[in-house]
Amino acid sequence: MLPVTLGRPLQTLRAGGFTLIESAYAPSLALPQHGHDEAYLSFAVRGSFDERVGGKTFDCARYDVIVRPPGERHSNRYGEGGTRCVLVEIDAALLARIREHTAIFDVPARLRRDVQPIAMRIHRELMSIDAASALSVEGLVLELIGESSRRMHAKAPRWLGDARAYIHEHWPERPSLADIARAGGVHPSNLVRAFRAHLQCSPAEYMRRLRLEHAKSALASTHRTIAEVALEAGFYDQAHLTNAFRRRFGITPAQFVQAARRIS
Prior knowledge:
- The protein is built from ten helices and ten strands.
- The protein is an alpha+beta fold.
- A six-stranded antiparallel sheet has the order 1-2-9-4-7-10. A four-stranded antiparallel sheet has the order 3-8-5-6, with no helix packed on it.
- Helix 4 crosses helix 5.
């Protein structure tokens, strides 16, 4: 029996106790809350998606890996340019053995971004399936789970919340690393390590995401030009915003504006 996917199935591969299916999802498709009997890993290989699960919303760019325990109810919204995702279903018997060695399937989460290269290799195998692909993919999925388990980290320090709050309040002013570290009361090197360990990004990357979210909101809710929004959000020009926007959301600002106007 194939895994349940509410998208359009493109290809499937069984690899040991794992079943992988690549599916396509229509632009701006919103899936209501639903669940799957088995545990899953999932990641986008084209476009982006949001997943609401366990009281949290995860904003997932390409190759961000979501882990979901069996039966966990969740909802999804896919990017304006359409999305393609790889879903990895874990057989119940295999999951029981895996859980003897890791806790990553205990709660829904987005895995650390330093496992993205493994997700990319899994996708490459699916793009050119041959006689060795099942064995290779089984090993890659186990490697992804193993690396994620090894890198599980302790609770984030309280001062990290102060540093994040400072960025949220002052990002239009382009605060320096020293400014952000001072807000948290720590040395800049400790700040960078904590961001990598707990948020899977640098302070600069975190700030760039806020700028992009601001630009996305402004483009959807105002009639200002893309160039005007780019400057307001702290980008050098429209081309700079376009490149960053496409990398983050899998669609250009112009395409996003067209889609938003069609909906409204």
